[in-house]
């Protein structure tokens, strides 16, 4: 028997019932936003961990840091004469240097000048120590960039004047020659040169070092009778000073390290 019922229009058929459990699934846009937020959080955590692990920049030296570093610079007799330098304490006349561009080689030694951009400084000395008289001075600058600019003036003068006859006041002609010295650890710039009037055995040497925002000068008036000069003693003195200054820096940057934490 053939039924006469006609199927209803498919468009009018009711939707089948679907049994659902839990909340509706998020839309693709919400899912992408959640993943993006998660990625940002992971990146922030990674950056924070990297900042914590990497060494922090060394803090600039204070005047107290320099005074503390110089406390250990004692002479062979166990004494120490440390002076704090300010602009009003160094008022000596600048020596006349020819050629003029060579003057920066002598400013902090024979001329005893206070650098125009320095804030203050500390110095000590050793008279008649073996075969030399020694002075040591460190000038402090507002930042490492200013200290670097001061050192670069000295380096530029040396590059122009090395091996060139120079006259300091009314002295005989003198010549500056470089000394091969290994810089102490942590020092950004280092220069060592010997000034003499051949064939005289009396000569003086200068070592200049930049360590962050300070520049240190070591000046040796050498009167040994030997024909050659050894830079070992000067290098050891600079290494000793910079080691103490770097230790002070590290104590500021990582105070817990002093107690083994």
Please tell me how large the radius of gyration is.
35 Å
**Helical residues, percent:** 25-40%
Describe the global form: elongated
Low-confidence stretches: 50-54, 255-261
Count of extended strands: 9
User: Numbering strands along the chain, what is their spatial order in the largest sheet?
Assistant: 1-3-4-9-8-7-6
Number of helices: 4
Please report which band the strand proportion falls in: under 5%, 5-15%, 15-25%, 25-35%, 35-45% or over 45%: 15-25%
The largest pleated sheet is described as:
7 strands, antiparallel
Q: Write down the secondary-structure element order.
A: HHEEEEHEEEEEH
Q: What is the CA-CA span between the terminal residues?
A: 97 Å
Structural class comes to alpha+beta
Mean pLDDT: 81
Structural commentary:
The protein is α+β, with helices and mostly antiparallel strands and 261 residues long. The protein has helices at residues 28-53, 63-71, 144-161, 232-253, and strands at 83-85, 97-98, 120-129, 132-140, 167-168, 175-178, 189-196, 203-211, 214-222. The strands form two sheets. Strands 1-3-4-9-8-7-6 form a seven-stranded antiparallel β-sheet, sandwiched between helices. Strand 3 (120-129) and strand 4 form a beta hairpin.
